[in-house]
Amino acid sequence: MPLSSLTRALLQRLSAFRLPAVHPLLLALGVSCLFVLFYNGQLWSAVLGWWPGRSLRDISFLASIGLFLAIAFNLVLQPFAFPRLLKPVLVLLVLAAAGVSWFASAYGALMDRSMIANVIETDAREVGDLLNFRFLLHMVLFGLLPALLVAVVPLRSSGYGREALLRGGTLLGSVALIGLVAVFFFQDYAVLLRGHRELRLMINPSAAIYASLRYATAVPEGLGAEFERIADRVERGPRPAKLGGRRKVLVFVVGETARADHFSLNGYARDTNPELARRGVVSFGDVRSCGTSTAESVPCMFSDLARGRYSASSAGSRENLLDLLVRADIDVLWLENNSSCKGVCARVPVRTAWEAEDTQYCDGGECLDDLMVRQLREAMAADTGRDLVVVMHQIGSHGPSYFKRYTRDYRRFAPTCDTNQLQSCSQAELVNSYDDSILYTDHILAETIDVLAGASDRFDTAMLYVSDHGESLGEKGIYLHGMPYMFAPDAQTHVPMVLWTSPGYRAATALDMACVRGEAGKAYSHDNLFHSVLGMFGVRTDVYRTDLDLLAPCRPGAAVAHVAGLATPDETARP
User: Fold this and answer.
1) How confident is the model at residue 221 (pLDDT cuts 50, 70, 90)?
2) What is the pLDDT of residue 193?
3) Phi, psi of 388 (to 5 degrees)
4) Which of 231, 324, 276 is closest to 533 using CA atoms?
5) How many other β-carbons are positioned within 10 Å of the β-carbon of residue 171?
6) Of the given ranges (401-410, 512-521, 547-556, 566-575), which has the lowest mean pLDDT?
7) Closest CA relative to residue 72, chosen from 159, 160, 163, 200
8) What is the pLDDT of residues 337-386, one digit of tens each?
9) CB 289 within 8 A of CB 528
10) Nearest residue to 552 (alpha-carbon basis) of 511, 514, 506, 522
């Protein structure tokens, strides 16, 4: 039989095939059960690990969780269970649940508002790193095919009286089943939920929907709000005569995804900081981040609000550290090699790596951090007569494509994970690639110091490096970052911080580096950055707090100036 005849016959058979019509309530229940059985692997894996008992009662309790979730999903879908409304809603939910289930199972992601912000605010480069064949196959099998099935299933409805009876009976039956579950297993649920509050963030797709609604309703909060000046006065202290007109230059390096416990400066067994170790830096070994994602941490790092009071909406409508530096007649330049500055650099000059059209350090829209070192040299060559702060926002160790963050010469720890499909790599390969990226960050920071040291005949220079957050490398099945802060592992919140100062800077500010080394072992956080950078330039303002300036104890006269009213603390800003 000719091929055209076979094709025609197949099409005729397919056109003759008809799925039986189902009631919208039954379709909603079927999809609810589908969510429970096939889209909540992370939830079931966690619950089975937390509840080790396997007695008949334990098994009945675990089964009741599936029953409860199916009923709850079905009840939520009831208002949409009408022929013209239900299918579009279910198709969107199935596609969303498929995507969430992939990131939950592949990376251990929990869906809260900050994770949704990461998804929405990411750029094309980051999206490309996360896409791979396994993800696409997962979306076809668990997203497109079920959504297509939902779309083609014919729906039927009954008369008004029968519809009312069906819907009323469904509602009463659901409530009765939930009541029975509560009667028999209330204490078990109480124990499980009290001990594992993160459980609610694993329920797919309800957790993602709730987090998305929170994100959407939080975004307009700062819109239209009057821009708030946080300080009534901002001025510089008297400049010592011995400065001789020399400018101060601070390079504030905002790292990306670096873990403190993978810095050899902090005791890591591997030598990941050989170049920094030779440059006399001070490493602060106990520093905590403001958040677990770039979208959350970067604005918080530059805000006067401590982590306990910080919110993205409030920070977006008020001055930040850079604004106060500008008001203090200090030039500020933001060099961007990450997704964006998250609004922090909105009122200062910005140079982005991808707009540089560089062929030496850039390839396919991604640039190595070396490019910013070159841009730093260019910025320091210009002479405006004012002090300068250059913020370098690194790509650092951004995952999952760690192998893209360093050159071949820095592939010291091998074998490496040379793919964005982290689950296809061993734990050792993944850690090797990550450590190579840290080794390269060490090189970039050393290059930055060399640029500053080479200009010490003209400037008094310093470099402050701190990462925005850490990274999980497969420990307990968790990868990347962005976990809710209260549940985040130490790997995502314990970040490295490094300080280097030139002899000229130390002399000009009377900074006692022996004292700084002695203070470096204390506990600090991103809350210290705002006040410490102001203190490094002697900026006097009513929002500066000496007790949060990590260098103040080692700078004679700082405490005296504070007591004298040159820097009145804002007591409401306490962490």
Assistant:
1) very low
2) 86
3) -135, 135
4) 324
5) 13
6) 566-575
7) 200
8) 998 899 999 999 999 988 888 889 998 778 999 999 999 999 998 877 88
9) no
10) 511
Nearest to 367 by CA among 395, 408, 399, 401: 395
- d(CA 526, CA 300) in angstroms, rounded, equals 8
| Dihedral (CA of 65, 68, 71, 73) sign | negative
pTM, full prediction: 0.81
- What distance in Å separates the CA atoms of residue 460 and residue 516, rounded to the nearest whole number? 18
Strand partners, 236: 539
Phi and psi at residue 420, to the nearest 5°: -90, 0
User: Hey, what are 534's tokens?
Assistant: 């102001």
Q: Provide the token pair at 353.
A: 């790596």
Within 361-502, where are the H helices?
Answer: 370-381, 427-454, 490-493
Specify the DSSP element, H or E, that contains 480: strand 479-480
Mean pLDDT of the chain: 88
- Rounded Cα distance between 528 and 437, Å, is 26
Q: Are 192 and 52 in contact (CB under 8 A)?
A: no
Q: In this structure, are residues 242 and 505 in contact, taking their beta carbons and an 8 Å threshold?
A: no
pLDDT tens-digit readout, 117-170: 777 777 666 677 777 888 999 999 999 999 999 999 998 877 788 888 888 999
| Mean pLDDT score, 471-493 | 92
